[in-house]
Structure formats: C-alpha cells, structure tokens
Batch of 3 targets.
Target 1
Amino acid sequence: MVINRVEEILDEPYEQVVQRVCAIDVAKDSGKVCVRTPAESGSGRRVSRVWDVQARTNAIIELGDHLACQSIEKVTLESTSDYWRIWFYLLEARGLDVQLVNARDVKNVPGRPKTDKLDSVWLAKLTEKGLLRPSFVPPRQIRVLRDYTRLRVDLTAERVRHWQRLEKLLEDALIKITSVASRIDTLSVRDMIEALIAGQRNPKVLAGMARGRMRLKHADLVEALTGQFDDHHAELARMLLDQIDALTAQIDTLTERIDTVLADVPVSPPPDGPEPDPDDHQPGRRNRVEQAPQVRGNGSGTAPAPGAAPRPVTALSLVDILDEIPGIGRHNAQEIIAEIGLDMSRFPTPEHLVSWAKLCPRTIQSGSRSSAGKTGKGNRYLRAVLGDAAAGAAKTQTFLGDRYRRLIKRRGKIKTLVAVARSILVIIWHLLANPGMRYQDLGVDFHTK
C-alpha cells in the first residue's frame, strides 16, 4: 500500500470527550432529561438516567440545582421551535454550560426505533463524544436588542401590507392616483385621501393639493382622481389610515428604545498587539478599513487634534461605522448588530460568519468530482437586511456597486446579490472584530487600475 498524502485534521474545540453530560429532548410542556455519568463502581462503564421534567420555571430551576450538584459539565438542548428558550435561559442563569444544537444535526441513525427516551439518550451520547456543533445564541443584552429590532421589522412589513390594502381600496373606487404618484405614502397622496374621506369629490380641488414636482402633473392627477369614491370607501380608508398611523407610532417608539438599549451594550476591546496597517486589512480582499482616530464621516470628517485622546468606541458609534458601508442605513446596522452581536470571537474568521449566515454554497465532493450545493436558509432576518443592503449598494458608484455590475453579466441577478451580500458581511466582520476601525471604499475604478 502506497500512501501519497497524509492529512492531519485537528479536532474542533467542541470535539472533546466530556465525562458528565446532560441532554434534554425538548417538547412544549415537558422535556425528557438524560444524564450520563461514569459508573460509581469504577468499571469504566457509563450510566444513563432518564426522567421527565415539566417545562415550568420552578421545575427547571430545581433541575438546574440538581445538575449543578451532579457536577454536570455540559448541557445540550435540541432547538425545538421556541420551546427551548425557557430551558436555555434558566439553566444558563444557574451557571451551567448550555449549548443549543440544530435538530437536523442530531437525527438518530435511520432504521432504529424513535422515542423521546431514545432521542435524549442519543443526544447525550453525541454530547459526551463531542460530535455536536452548538448553535449561536447571543448574550442577554443582544437578545433584548434582537427582540426590539425583529418586532420593528415585522411591524414595518405589516404597515406595508396596510398601504397595499389601501391601494386596492382606491382601485376599487376607480381612483388611479398610484399611476401618477411615485408612491402611495407621500404627503401629497395622504392629503388627497384625507380630503376624499372628508367628502371632497371634485378632482380639480383634489389635484390642487399636490406638492413639489407633483404639481407639474396636474392634468394627469385630475384624470386619476376622477372615480366613484363613496361613503363605504371612506369608512374603510379611515380604518386603514388609523392602523398605519398606529403602526408608525409604535415603530418610532421601538426605534427610540433600540437606541437606548444599544447605549448599554458593552463593546469588547480591540485585540492586543501592534496597530494594524490599513493596507493589511482587506475584508475578502475587497475593501480596506482604517484605524481610528482617523475619523472619516462620509468624506467630510476631520481627524482629531494632535494629542487628543481617541473617543471610546460604543455600540452606537459602531452603528455609525456600519452606516458608512454602501447600502447600509442606521436601521440596517442596528438589525445586523442584533442578529450577529458584537463579539466576533464566536466566529473565528469571516468565512465562519458567512457560512453561518448561509451566504456561501455548500461544498459537495466525492472522488474527483466537486460541486457547489445550495446556500441554505440561514437567519432570515439577517439575510433580508443584507439582501436589501446589497440591492442598495448595487446602485452606487462604489466598489460594491462595480462588483455587482461586473458579476451580473455572467452570474445573474440573484447570485450576484448573494455575492455582494457576502462581501458586505465580510466587511462587517472586520469592522466589528476591530472596534474603532472605519470603512474606506476602494473606489469604483479599483479593478480597472
């Protein structure tokens, strides 16, 4: 036998044998708990004990005390819907080392019987052998921030649906205002709808409420506002506008609360060592970042006075830093921080973060054949905000915009947006892994030079 090549594969940090473990097969009202420990006889055999625990606060706190007394080194939870949260939060607060794993990664061997008891024992065996990859669960402050940002995203989507319902109502009333106005949520259109609800039906009077450049479309507005808007349309339109106003007020409240929460989120200090050279930091070999205190604000900022102490980096300042990336606004930056956190040690390299976000194809290799699989689903909130950022960056005269225009010629729109989103996420990793550094675009003519 001739060995042409020998590869040494090091175990990951989580691939270590654990002596005393606990695994919980989570359900809605209860959990099947399995504890595996060495036998007291010292024979080298291992003992499994399985019992049911109610998914209630007091019962789980009592379980946490029992596991701590048993010197359990690691607790594994299967991520079943949102039912795992009460187990994770309470056991984590007790000081136990808790990890959450994807149910897809812990499936039992095919052909074996499946019961909750056998599932918990199998999960415990995988835990003690170190064969599980834990899912990313952010710390408590980031989880609080995530609750606010996700609710704002959901309410914003609900408000858009109400605007769409209002547009369908106007179409039913033969009012074609959206064929003339660029958007239905402009101030001019809002004034016209309010006048229609109040009883005004004269299209010339309604068209006279136009503002700004819409005044140049007076003749088209008169034609579009000529319809059959009656009392029942007015009553329904009033309900929809009240819903929109209520959602807008709630969204504004959430935005204020998000800023307050961000002000209290601690930022990890930058890693020790010599100051990095700006040319050495090229996220994805695409963009550079520059070291503070060379503050640059959209090209108009100035550096601090010589000898002045650099301003401390806070979560709010990181939002401003991410806001400088093309396609990302303040709301997008807040949502990104809420989804991936500020501690980039959970993702050792940008590739780890990109793989977790499912923005890279899965490698499929067998023999001499190698192909790329699908990217997967990933975090839908993070993928949505990065998709919006990529679409926005594609319209700019920046490096990311030029990257989009180069790739779309041969890769298509969808794959190109994913590629640009991946580049943005790599840039974000570098900025968060090195607090105080700023984004510097390479320019639209980088590749031509």
Note: Confidence is low (pLDDT under 50) at residues 273-309.
Target 2
Amino acid sequence: MPWKETCAMDERCLMIADYRKEELSIAELSRRYGISRRTCYKWIERYEAEGFGGLEDRSHAPHDCPHRVSEATAAAVVAVRIAHPTWGPKKVQAWLDEHKPGRPWPALSTIGELFDGAGLTVSRKRKRRVPASAPFHSCVAPNDTWTVDFKGWFRTADGRRCDPLTLSDAYSRYLLRCQAVDRPDGVSVWPIFDAAFREFGLPRAMRSDNGSPFASTAAGGLSRLSVRLIKAGIVPERIAPGKPQQNGRHERFHLTLKRETADPPAANRRAQQRRFDAFRTLYNEERPHEALKQTPPSRHYRPSPRRYSGRLREPDYPDDFLIRRVRSNGEIKWRGEFVFVSQVLAGEPVGCEQTDDGIWTLHFGPIKLGLIDHRGRLYVPSRSRGDGSERTANLQAPRTQNVLPIIPV
C-alpha cells in the first residue's frame, strides 16, 4: 500500500484535531507528527489565537526595513522626473546631489524602480547603432570647434514652418544658440553667427554637414557663408557626405531638443522660441550631462580669448604666393588666359603656391581649392567619399576656355 501524501497544512490540521480530543499529551503529539514540542506549542498557540487561519505559513520578510526609501525621498525623486520627463536616473540623481545636498539619495536602480512604480517609465525599442567615429580628436579646449546644424524643420500648431538653427561648443557641449530662422539660408544664419561671435568670441573651427548654406559644390566646397567665416578668422570643417556620426554629438543633441521642446510643437513660432530659450538655459546651467561626469556644460565653458570686432578681413598669404583677385564671373587671369575658379569667391583674393614639379596649388585662406597644371587648367578635388580618398571632378563654369577634365583615380 503506497504512502499517503499530505501537505504541511493538512498535517497541522490533523494535529490540532488530535489535540482537541484531549487524548494525547504534547509529547505524544510531537512524536506522532515528527515535530519538536516547541513547534507543537507554536501551532497550538496560533490556532487558539486565530483559528485554522493561523496555521498557514507567514511571510519571512522583516516587519521594518531600515533601508526602505522614505515617502519624502521618493516624492522628491519623482518630482524631479515629472519636471524633466526625459531625464533618466543618472541625471535625476546628479541633479539632486547638486541642488539638495546632505541627503543620501537612492541608488540608480532604486530610482529606476521609483519611476516604474509611479508609471513614469516609457519602454523604447532598442536600435542597433553604427559605432560613431571620433572627428573631434583635436578638440581639447572650449572654442576649439563649434558645431552647427539645422535640427530639421517642423510645423507649429498654427501650421507655420519652423527651422531651428543650433550652435554649440564641441568640447563643453555648451549651447550657444538655439534659434528659429526665417529661412535656412546664409542671409538668415549670418546674423546669428555674428551675435554669437560678439558674445562669446571666435572659435578656431566651425564644423557642419555638407548642406546649404554651410557648403556648396563650388571649389573647396565653399559657400558664401563659409567665405565669411574664413574672413572672420574661422576654419570651416565639413563632415564626410553621408556620415552624420562624424558630428554625432550634435546629432544626438537634436533628439534631446525635440523631446524637450517640440513634442508636441508650441502654438506658434514665438511660443516655440520661448521654449527654445528656456531649454537653452536649463541645458547649459542645470541639466547634468553624462559625458561631463553629470555636470552641466556651463561649468566647462568659457568665452574665447579671440575677440570679434565685426570686421571681416581678407586672408593673408605668404610672400612667395602669387595673388590673383577673382573676377565677378568667378574667373582669374592666369598667364594670359582666364581660369574659372568659383563665383562664390567673386572679388576675393586667392593665393597661388608653386610646387617642386611646377604645378600651382590654389588657396583661399586655409582652404585648398585645386591645382593649376602646366597648361593652365584647374583640377578641383571633389568631396571626400568618406573612406579617406578623394576624387577629382569637373568644375562646371558658365564660360571658360579651360575645360576641366576628370582625372581617373
């Protein structure tokens, strides 16, 4: 005959039933059910106090946890999250340490659990990201490089188009400008640059993508806006075409800007600009930045010692350079012939440097425009393909005697 299988609760009930018969002593009950007398007394006491419900297993959790987060602490953590819905546990903890010191704030995992409990966590699908390159290897101090880009236009609630231009310091992430422009062109952008230069001084370089108005298909990739930057004493830098990760810091910032200010958009452009202004103050002065060890950008930025007077000066060239002034049609005169360079440079001086093999290199300030061969033909390298190589390309001119051939790579 097989053994009867009973659960612990059944055994306790049977023991209590035998106890109520008053036929067995405590010692005999203990031996019958294979428990100690102390355990027997425990279940009898629970039965007499609570009935059969007292025979159920109880939680072993402590009645009081000394490490439990207090209601006041939890409320303070959740309040910061509500005020800044896009901030994660790291930024919330850093902000609390900075603005409310002297209190032991919870660990990051605990803060995340508080967000979950308050229903403030939004799960997002993970995306596979391409590893970003490091184009800022020479950016070791504030104002070494500024980065600029348009966030991407959207419409405010009244249906009007809004084009935000953002300008930031690559080293400190300090947001210098965040402003909606009338049009995404050089005419609208330059006054913003001019105001930033007057307030913060001049950077050594300005990094942008290859789009208008920052670049063009002209010689050297120069646009009228980049020509003005050179005349202000700034070197224009451009990422490789199709390589936004080379300006990854600025691209990632735009995601934060959208979440904080344009999701959803404001009622009109004026209200949207007020959001941009408030965000810029918060981003620079309060918002912890993970790349800056959870400190705000304002602690790492200082204005440039290169002050800006507002004057634009023509580039200086070494004494051994030949200087040619670009005509209104984009041509220069070279050994009795006319060579088309770029209408973007109309009225500007370009420098010609002779190499050892008799080829002349054409420059505008720090930018190399192309090569003039023995027959007076100009070869202009096209934009980089992103793999470190370059391709020479035809330069289309409105009229010129010197057709630019394509050199095989």
Note: Residues 269-285 form the longest helix (17 residues).
Target 3
Amino acid sequence: MFSCFYRRGRSAALLACVLAGSFSPAVYAQQPRTAKDGVYTDAQAIKGHTLYADRCAQCHGATLGGDIAPPLVGNEFLGNWAEVPLADLVDKIKNTMPADDPGKLTQQQSADIVSYILQAGKFPAGRAELASDAAALKLITLPPVATPARTPSAVAGGQAPSFPAFGSLNAVMRGILFPSSNIIFDVQTRDPAKKVTGASTSDSTLTDRFADVYQGWLLVDIAAVALVESAPLMLTPGRRCENGKPVPVDRPDWIKFTQGLVEAGQAAYKASQSRNQDAVIEATNQVAESCLNCHRTYRDRRNIARCEVQ
C-alpha cells in the first residue's frame, strides 16, 4: 500500500519506510475485510476454545456441529451469517448466550469465542487478534456462501406440499400480528430484563399473560420472529378479507407493505438481540409505521371497496 522513496540520502529514505510501515496496520484495520483475511490469531482461538468448551459445547456440540442448538460451522451456519458483520455475531453471543444463562460473557470473551468459531470453520489465522470493539468488528464479515440450486428431487415425493389459505386476513392479523406487535410495543413501558409476575386481570398486558410461560427478552425475540414469519401469510393466494373480497396479493403496494412488515420484524428482532430497551423502542417506530402504511390504504372506510382489514 505504501512505497519507500529516497529523499536527501539513505537516512531520509529509511525514515520514509519506517513511517509508511507505522501507518499501514491502522489504515488496513479500517478497510472492510472478510474472515478469509486472517482476522484472529491462533493464540486467541485457543482462549476461545476454552471458553467454548465451558459455556457453549453443551448445546452446540463439542465439534461445533450442533446438538440441541444450531451448528456454528458449515454451510448452514454460513448461510445464516454470510455477509453479516462479525459485530452482530459477537453481540449475539455476549447478549444472549448461553441461552440458559445469558449476559455473563464479556465483549472480549465473546470475540475470543468467535475467533475459535472462525478457526473451526477453516478460516486462516493472522498476526493480530480479532478486535473486541464494535467499530472494528463492523468492518469484518463472513464471506458469502454459494447456495446449491434446489431441484425437485431434493423434495420428498418430488413436489413440495401446498397449504391453501384457511383463515381470513383478519383472523391472521388478529391471531398473530396483533398480539406479536403489542408484545414488542410493551417494551416502550417496561424493561424486559425485569422479571414480570403472572397476571390475569382484564387490564393486564399480553406480556403479563405470557409471564408464566416465557419471560423477558425471549418473549420479545419470538414476537419479532412471529412478525417476520407470518407476514408472507398476507400474500397467500385465495385468502379473503373479512368482507369476503380477495386479498389483493398481486398489487404492488400490497406486496411493498408486506415486505415492510418483514423488515420491521427483522429490525425489532435485531434490536431485541441487543438486549437494549431503547433500541427496541426505536424499532417500534418502524413496526408501527409498517402497520400504518397498510392501514391508510386498505383499512380506511373510503377504500372499503378494495379490501377491508379492520
């Protein structure tokens, strides 16, 4: 990246080389990189291995191949984390792992565990440790992984089963989207990190009512997942609105609104994974806006001829 040049004799040339060399690591560290570029050291991976064996192996398996929790090596893992900043992976480990005792690992320990994951995934070691600060980690990603084409023979029987629409759009929204979004909205007034005692009064929130089953951040996680996974149900051909009219699944604006809901759910999930109440509160704005965009067009009484989803 830097070249040496002669200036006023040999000593000046040597000084130019030294200065260039002193700048290059800092500049290089600021460039986007992938795990193929040697972003951790073998010594760091050894520390990570010790931590992994103590805190992670019970669920993810001794060889990272997965057990009661997903694998941390191979195409399945890379398919989920390819092109995602390592900052997100470190944060997930720090904030949510181990699942039965989260929040006990430090940022540095989490980075060390990621270094071991990289080593186990056959990514090369380098001369500098994987940094633990978020700014540096955001510049490093796992490389993309090629996804093999899916052929009919890969599906049992040669054809995937179809699932026609069963409930109305209102039933889907009231049964899945409404309760899930309101669990996320509850974060505006209560910290998921604080234990909630069960409640059965008529004015209790949805978070209260689930308190005896799921608690805290896990409840917010699964509510966000429910938004993402249920949004495509709004595009199921043959589904009807409450007034019997077909859901406009082929309209560009309806498709756009559905995609907006998916993105809002993903944003809420990412915020929940940070275990930061303010981050989730910020994400609720996107969730609310995604709902409002659709309601303005399709729930307004003036547009009832198109589809009512109230």
Note: The radius of gyration is 25 Å.
